[in-house]
Design brief:
Elements: H1 3-25, H2 32-54, H3 63-72, H4 78-88, H5 98-127
Length: 128
């Protein structure tokens, strides 16, 4: 397995996890808009890692473009498309609460982690 790729992904995932924990810990401190922003940023780091190991460069270079890439990717589950869509929408503050943003972030983060595990298993099989 390409250790350089795996190390880059681990760094992205670790940054995403720090952001995600920040969002969860401050849910009742920050206003919803700030929680949405932090949740998007957390997912952005995870999707950045996902783009590295899947080589889905067409997702773009920014976190928002990565989210839009997930939103429009018809090769992944609809639940993932929908959660990405919810986090990319421009909205009034009352339309997506911070708690809902965290829920969508959890779905997307779990997806990225599951896909990484599948990638690692596949790469390990290919090395045998």
């Amino acid at each position: 397995m390409n250790k350089e790729i795996l190390n880059k992904v681990k760094v992205s995932f670790a940054q995403g996890e720090r952001e995600f924990q920040n969002a969860k810990q401050n849910l009742n401190v920050y206003y919803d808009g700030k929680i949405r922003t932090i949740a998007r940023r957390a997912v952005g780091f995870y999707v950045d890692g996902y783009v590295i190991f899947t080589n889905k460069k067409h997702y773009g270079n920014s976190f928002m473009n990565h989210l839009r890439g997930l939103e429009n990717d018809k090769t992944i589950p609809t639940e993932i498309n929908n959660s990405a869509s919810a986090l990319t929408m421009k909205m009034k503050n009352e339309e997506l609460t911070g708690k809902e943003a965290i829920k969508h972030a959890e779905i997307l983060i779990s997806f990225c982690k599951e896909e990484l595990n599948k990638f690692i298993i596949k790469e390990n099989r290919n090395e045998i």
